[in-house]
Amino acid sequence: MTFKNNTEILKETMSKDYWHQKWIETYIENSKILYDMAFDRIKEIVWNSEKNSILDAGCGNGVNTIRLVERNFKVTSIDFSDAALKLCKNNLLKNNIKANVTIEKDDLLHLRFLDNTFNSVLCWGVLMHIQELEKALCELNRVIVPGGYLILCEVSKNAIDTIFGRIVKKIFNSNNYTEIKNSLGIETWTDTDAGRMLVRKTNIAKIIEYLSNRGFSLIDRFPGQFTQSFTRVSNSKLKKVILNFNRFWFKYVGLANPSLEQILIFKKNDFN
Fold it and tell me: What one-character-per-residue DSSP string does 215-243 give?
């Protein structure tokens, strides 16, 4: 009998169309306004008309690829999942996007690109599903030019939403998940109909420290969704209230620490 390691199990689970369709149904429309504002802010920081190549690492259905192309980046979008790449291509066709984008199959743990290939790398909500986090970060570091940017969106283990969610799980004694704590966060392994799944609530301070020790400087940090509790309610009015609060928090409060999603922009030092 051949035993699969955790990375192989996760790839098998994440390669299925189920997860990408579920993400579309849950987040696309609900997140559109806030994420459009977030990408406008990202462009203000990292845009350079002469150095605008960017890697969308773990592109999924391509919604962020579209945001990048619309903001004049020259995008290379990668994913290891054939299902994701098919959705990405269809999404680009649907939006009549044909220029300034290349779609390739690739693996964040073993990127085929040469060193110093991209001026920027976007990795949005992807690392939280990868157990070999440090290996993935090393690969992303490798393909960024000195002076280039790394843009991450991760969920925080110290967020109010995370703390409340863990309390609820303990109260109701849910037994279909396993929680593992380590220096980089809290890994929750869940048995689902589509396979075993990992979601990491990240220790943001440790990620910042890890990248700082490898020649990156944090130059911006701001909230994404303050809470994702809108995914757990069926009442449309209540859902709208939560989404409006998320947008209010992003636009007028802007504090990252209490937020579930945190967007981090790092600059790679020129001497690397």
Answer: TEEEEEEEES-S--GGGG---HHHHHHHH
Contact 112, 106 (CB under 8 A): yes
Over the stretch 21-61, which tens digit does the pLDDT of each residue have? 777 777 777 889 999 999 999 999 999 888 899 999 999 99
Q: How far separated are the first and last CA of the chain, in Å rounded?
A: 45
Give the whole-angstrom CA distance, residue 144 versus residue 121.
7
Sheet holding 177-182, edge to edge: 177-182, 185-192, 195-202
| Domain enclosing residue 143, as ranges | 6-268
Q: Are strands 195-202 and 185-192 parallel, antiparallel or unpaired?
A: antiparallel
* pTM for the predicted model, two decimal places: 0.94
Alpha-carbon gap, residue 77 to 111, rounded angstroms: 12
Q: How many domains would you assign to the chain?
A: 1
Confirm whether 117 is domain-assigned: yes
